[in-house]
Amino acid sequence: MILPQIQIARGHWILGALFLAIILDEYLPLIGRDDQPARSRSPLIGWALMIGGAGVWATVIFADVVHDMLVHFLWGDLLLAAGALELARRRGVYERPWLDYVLPLAILGCGLLFLVHVEIDPEGQGARWHLSMGLLLVAAGLLELLRLRWPRVAAIPLGLPALAAFALLLIAIPVAAAS
Amino acid sequence: MTSLGKWSPWRDRSWPRVAAAILLLAAAVVWATIRGLHSYALSPVGIGYDLDQPPVVLALVGGWIFYRSRRP
Fold this sequence. Notes:
The complex is a heterodimer of chains A (179) and B (72).
Chain A: H1 5-27, E1 30-31, E2 37-38, H2 43-62, H3 66-91, H4 102-120, H5 127-149, H6 160-172
Antiparallel strand pairs in A: 1-2
Helix pairs in contact in A: 1-2, 1-6, 2-3, 3-4, 4-5, 5-6
Chain B: H1 15-35, H2 44-51, H3 54-67
Helix pairs in contact in B: 1-3
């Protein structure tokens, strides 16, 4: 069963909105009750990542295009794993320093999968959109990893502009370019 | 919450979230004006389609970020 183009575009729009909410909530400063900067602990972020993962994974069932099935399956796995880890961290049931790397690595991984998507099907509809989105995610993931390794700039969310641009591209993707 | 008389953008560090929310809501209004919004049947699926339009999802994210600009 091949999904109608408009349904595929709708999937992109809603996942783009989820992603925009995730990254703005994660990276914009949050002030706690004591007037000190606080880290976002909203479990909605973990849920949103997992819902996004389930949405992407669902395309494996609803799409008959083999490369879409492969790439979306891996995307779904990555988002579900990142969502589960973020949920555990935000609920306070699992606290490890390496959990700080989960979101940047998930972003980098998703960006690389976008590039794989374009590499497998360079003539596909929306290839330029996917290439732009992949490059933005790779840049954002690398900048966020750099920020974690460079504590002096830790207060500045280096990857935020690229991530916001990615999410806006996803929300703005035309029906004809969504695949 | 700081009182209105003493409010300053430098003291109230929630302003990046408020600014982002205002920007998103304004972009949603402009986008909806230019692109237009479709209206679907009054059913669960129709309401889902009503909400899943680029300007509407942008406004929903703006509202969420504004809500999250308040202290926890």
